[in-house]
Write a structure and sequence with these properties.
mainly alpha, Tyrosyl-Transfer RNA Synthetase, globular
Length: 112
């Protein structure tokens, strides 16, 4: 409440997301990912973006973007770290984000 007893609105925001090098992730860094299909295609942009995430950035993306438990995140990281060349962490991010944003049909098209 303010000094006159009026209810105040509430607002929340997210801190800026940084990669492992301290660089911002997002639009101002030239790598925007939009939910709008006319701005970001599920395959050419969104799926590929997450496939190209550095290994060191997988955990922060899992924590910030996906609705996963800490145990599930640790499971993904452990599987990824056993065979980083398989890109399990990146594939988990890419698949999940595309499915969340555009649905299972889009994900099936992306994965061919």
């Amino acid at each position: 409440m303010d000094h006159k007893g009026n209810k105040l609105g509430k607002s929340e925001g997210n801190p800026i997301w940084l990669d492992h090098k301290g660089n911002k992730l997002g639009k101002s860094e030239g790598n925007p990912i939009w939910l709008d299909l006319t701005k970001t295609s599920p395959f050419d942009d969104m799926y590929q973006y997450f496939l190209n995430i550095f290994d060191a950035d997988i955990e922060i993306c899992l924590l910030k973007i996906l609705f996963m438990t800490e145990d599930a995140i640790q499971e993904v990281l452990a599987r990824h770290n056993k065979r980083p060349e398989d890109c399990f962490g990146q594939k988990t991010l890419a698949r999940t984000v595309v499915e969340m944003a555009h649905g299972k049909v889009a994900l099936k098209k992306v994965e061919g």
